[in-house]
Fold these 2 entries.
Entry 1:
Amino acid sequence: MKNPRIYGNAPFSIAVIHGGPGAAGEMAPVARELALSRGILEPLQTAPSLEGQVAELKTVLEQSGKPPITLIGFSWGAWLSFICAAQYPTIIRKLVLIGSGSFEEQYAADIHETRLSRLSEPEREGITSLLVTLNDPSTGDKNTPFARLGKLFTRADAYNPLPVDDEYLDIQYHIYQNVWNDASEMRKSGKLLELGQRIQCPVVAIHGDYDPHPAEGVQKPLSSVLKSFRFILLKNCGHKPWIEREARDKFYEILREELD
């Protein structure tokens, strides 16, 4: 895979950061839309560790972009952007966090149950079966069941989605497992939120009111540690605003305003 993928024309001072971990390519629709009026980088996180992904992102931004750069991070990519801005504040101009995970453990307790409650009984049984497969050491190919699990979660996460195709380039379960274990521990210990004290740039969080990741798990913790923070809640919107029929246009309107 070419890393980063590049859209539009120079200068490249904006980058979209995908979620997962291990879900390279999912931010392509956002990159294409924004590239109609500006240059966009789409870094692909391929390192199999949290520390490695932070270093990888820094290298891509410095080599392919024009720092300081605005990072638009989605889901796990919001956390990764947050960590990168704390560790390398001089190369980051602004953070836009979309559908971020909660920054404190207490807010994350009900996410799985919320998702299950939105699915049919066969779909819930499918998730249980896939989780058993992924946790079985004898399973050879874990990328395929991981991708299937992602499709079911995407269905549960959406409010009123448009018919769109997945644009994942590569689904890598081992990347997810390694990176998420480290990231989850950072949240449990409080170290993730503490990093906010080192962030110097403005931060804007955009969150859907139907996102199973609770909005207050982003708004309340970040309001307590960031020097410059704004929170925007989108109505009738799930985890991915750009696929939502009722929120997509408003999402891009807000995003463009934040980038001007």
Entry 2:
Amino acid sequence: SVNGIIDEFSFAESLAFFGRGINPVEAVTSLLARKEAVKEVSRIAGHNYALRLLPYRLRIEREYFVKGNDNFKTAKRKARTGNWDEAGLIWAKETENPSRKIAGRAFFNMAVISEINGNIDEAIEWARRSYEDFNVRKGLKYLRLLEGRKHDDIVLKMQEEM
């Protein structure tokens, strides 16, 4: 059992109503539109909240290294044609490259292929090592992005279990 608020959605909208007329009946009549205004604001709030919960497609772009040696050029061509698995095999081999620059880039690219394959924890570890062990600066930024994505996935799973 989960205690506390799992999700919170704040929505603020101000509505002001004024009624005028030559007598009280006409003043009240001029306020009849308020019911429709309140219903419309409520509909918009519900719609905006539902958009947060409903599944939707999202296109995500990721940068990866394409320069380093001939193997990186080959992997780039494979990735461009959608053959990510073979590109990943090439990058995995290059993580053993004696050149720290090439190996670091390969570690970073392995983070990308891991995310593509849906393994966020593995992607986080590859990105962490690309920065910590090889000083690939993009690795730290990517690590933070992956950690944020992992957090969002956890929140989504908690909402699905409710």
